[in-house]
Amino acid sequence: MSYFIMFMLISFLILIHELGHFIAAKLSKIPIQIFSVGFGPKLWSFRKGQTEYRISALPIAGYVLPKMEDVDDFFQIDSSRRIAFALGGPLANIILAVICLGFLNALTMGFSFYAVLIFPFVQLTKITSQFLYALPSLFSSPDKLSGVIGIVAMGGQMVAGDFLNILNLAVMLNINLAILNLLPILPLDGGKILFCLLEKIHRSILKLQMPLTVTGWVLFLGLLSYVTVLDMCKYVFKIYA
Asked: Is the separation of the CB atoms in 65 and 164 below 8 Å?
């Protein structure tokens, strides 16, 4: 049961990330064709304005699809609006982390203005700085990386049905998801923001974005396959246990 809770928590946090992109798109007046809860075949949907809201068969996270004829149409949108769109996802995770910290403090320290509304930002700064300090070790020791299987396995053991542990884990995962997505590497949100800034220097830089995005996806999928194999060895086959 703990592993199922952990899996659903990860899916929920990724959905919140996509919801942040969706809200940012609406505020930036970027047209959205589909906002889906889950992936795969459509189970149910309704349309409001230009956007189709759907529930899909696989209840895993979700996605936002801008309404564009082709990729070039998206790059015709003002770069500041595209930056806002990219920032929406990480910002949503940071906001949720602050909310979770507020709940945690209210439950463990008692309800007060400082504990619920001020101290969470102090904690957020501390946790973020600790994660940034540890971030280089992820690249120098790739064998320490974990994918979804590893996160579910380790998180499932930590959760153990305890609500405070779930909140603590939600805080950590939200902050990790936000920071990793802000790394200036395509196809991550940070990479998209970087290219929006670079194109202000010279528009021709846009020509590099698509090949670098494809390269980034290839490397990302390769890394995902690598950590999945590591997770299977550690947690399924117990080879490195």
From this structure: no
Below-50 pLDDT ranges, the chain: 241
The catalytic residue positions are: 18
DSSP E strand stretches across the chain: 32-48, 51-66
Provide the 10 A C-beta neighbour count for residue 19.
Answer: 18
What is the C-alpha separation between 92 and 21, in angstroms, rounded? 8
Tally of CA atoms within 13 A in the half-sphere of 188 that contains its CB = 16
How do residues 50-101 score in pLDDT, each as one tens digit? 899 998 887 777 889 888 877 778 888 888 999 999 999 999 999 999 999 9
HEC readout, 105-128: HHHHHCCCHHHHHHHHHHHHHHHH
User: Residues 6 or more apart from 10 whose CB is under 8 A from it?
Assistant: 148, 151, 152, 155, 173
